[in-house]
Design the sequence.
């Protein structure tokens, strides 16, 4: 009878161990399989790749006239392509705008002559109940200065009223025109995008505009006098 | 015939215990074999598509394709050729110069930003600088096919227009990328994958987030490989370049690149 009681205890101990060991084993197996698929198999795959192709560097080949011709041909190609590539960077003045950090860089004769803070598009998507929408972002890529203006006035588009909860006036209504808010100069990039001044100088260096590029007065003046119509602006 | 008397073979529990590990083991072995075949298959297809074909007019020996002087010049030309091709478009492109440890953002042939690579790891296939076929493959720009990232490309904020001036509130919402770690993965043409991780650990969680970001992409790749293997196809092998860049530069690179941007690569 005593033996039977002991056996029952043993049995329950074994069952208890089983309850712990079994799930642990299953978990360990699943983790091992995952490690194999996620880490080990790509690792082994990489080991099978041959790291270096054999080179011959035969002395006889190097003396061959056809070989030398091929080498010269390659050197000439490299020179031609390099000079072609070099011509893409203009010797004229150009402006680079970094929209992620809101910085500008002004170059003249391929040298950086001025840099500073600017403000670019806020990435705000304005939606109305009626289903109209506008995204306020500065376009990226290569642009050309299409026009230069002194003492520009701002003809407020519809979104400028909608954004503030104001009723939208007719197209040439006097309330659409604001003077002095764009600074003393404006340079046009086309499609309504301008490089201009601002009265909100505390926001320079932040993405707060409706797509235009805002600068402080001194930087704007320097850029206005350095860039000509046709000068390039690179925005990234 | 009474359906209840039909003899259906029943696998007993001990047999099942042996059967499941055996099947799993066999599948793992088959998967591993397919994975090991993948790089060989990729290299063979690159060699057949981009391998050296002697010019009919030229009488130069085929061994020129294994000459290190020729290959060094050929690599240089391939890189410039790819950059010239990219310059023809007005779009933003990347030039990745591994020997120089630098990444440039180019717009229409003008370098507008340059970043120093802090650390890099390159897969053995791309490390092989003496391979004519791989250099030839890289003589054209590689287009981005897919991108995975820990930050949005455009940090868009949606704002409903106020009904009147009483509802109007000027809002400046901070860019979330100022707090989130910047990690991204670019899948390019020809199966090349570029991993970019921020170099700095700004807080303890950055490392953990980077691990989970990497783990997520490993799941994506493993799932693709499993789908191929199950359908009896050799999975794709992806030569890779892993870069660690300063956080700010990584963010600029990712945000500057268009969705289907192009990359020129010099190894």
Sequence:
């Amino acid at each position: 009878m005593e033996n039977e009681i002991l056996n029952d205890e043993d049995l329950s101990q074994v069952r208890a161990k089983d309850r712990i060991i079994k799930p642990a084993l299953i978990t360990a197996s699943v983790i091992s399989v995952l490690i194999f698929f996620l880490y080990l198999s790509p690792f082994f795959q990489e080991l099978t790749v041959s790291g270096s192709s054999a080179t011959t560097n035969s002395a006889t080949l190097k003396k061959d006239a056809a070989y030398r011709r091929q080498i010269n041909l390659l050197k000439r190609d490299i020179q031609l392509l390099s000079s072609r590539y070099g011509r893409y960077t203009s010797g004229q003045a150009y402006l680079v705008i970094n929209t992620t950090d809101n910085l500008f860089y002004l170059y003249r004769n391929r040298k950086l002559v001025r840099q500073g803070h600017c403000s670019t598009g806020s990435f705000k998507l304005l939606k109305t109940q009626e289903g109209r929408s506008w995204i306020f972002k500065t376009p990226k890529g290569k642009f050309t200065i299409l026009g230069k203006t002194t003492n520009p006035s701002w003809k407020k588009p519809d979104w400028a009223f909608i954004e503030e909860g104001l009723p939208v006036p007719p197209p040439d209504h006097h309330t659409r025109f604001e003077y002095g808010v764009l600074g003393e100069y404006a340079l046009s990039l086309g499609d309504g995008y301008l490089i201009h001044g601002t009265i909100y100088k505390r926001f320079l260096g932040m993405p707060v505009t409706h797509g235009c590029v805002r600068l402080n007065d001194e930087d704007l003046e320097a850029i206005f006098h350095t860039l000509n119509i046709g000068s390039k602006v690179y925005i990234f | 015939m009474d359906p209840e008397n039909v003899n259906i073979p029943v696998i007993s529990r001990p047999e099942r215990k042996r059967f499941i590990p055996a099947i799993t083991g066999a599948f793992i072995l088959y998967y591993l074999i397919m994975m090991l075949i993948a790089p060989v298959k990729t290299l063979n297809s690159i060699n057949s598509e981009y391998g050296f074909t002697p010019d009919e007019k030229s009488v130069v020996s085929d061994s020129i394709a294994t000459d290190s002087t020729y290959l060094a010049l050929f690599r240089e030309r391939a890189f410039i050729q790819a950059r010239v091709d990219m310059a023809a478009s007005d779009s933003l492109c990347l030039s990745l110069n591994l020997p120089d440890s630098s990444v440039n953002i180019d717009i229409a042939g003008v370098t507008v930003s340059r970043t120093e690579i802090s650390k890099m790891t390159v897969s053995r296939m791309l490390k092989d600088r003496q391979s004519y076929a791989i250099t030839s493959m890289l003589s054209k720009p590689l287009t981005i096919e897919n991108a995975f990232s820990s930050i949005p490309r455009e940090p868009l904020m949606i704002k409903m227009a106020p009904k009147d001036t009483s509802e109007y509130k000027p809002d400046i919402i901070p860019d979330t990328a100022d707090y989130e770690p910047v990690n991204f993965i670019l899948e390019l043409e020809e199966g090349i994958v570029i991993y970019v991780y921020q170099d700095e650990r700004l807080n303890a969680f950055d490392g953990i987030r980077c691990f989970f970001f990497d783990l997520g992409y490993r799941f994506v790749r493993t799932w693709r490989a499993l789908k191929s293997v199950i359908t009896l196809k050799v999975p794709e092998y992806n030569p890779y370049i892993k870069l660690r860049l300063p956080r700010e530069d990584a963010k600029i690179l990712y945000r500057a690149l268009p969705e289907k941007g192009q990359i020129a690569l010099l190894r």
Remarks:
- Strands of chain B lie at 92-97, 102-107, 110-116, 119-122, 142-149, 157-160, 183-188, 193-198, 240-245, 262-266.
- Chain B has six helices and ten strands.
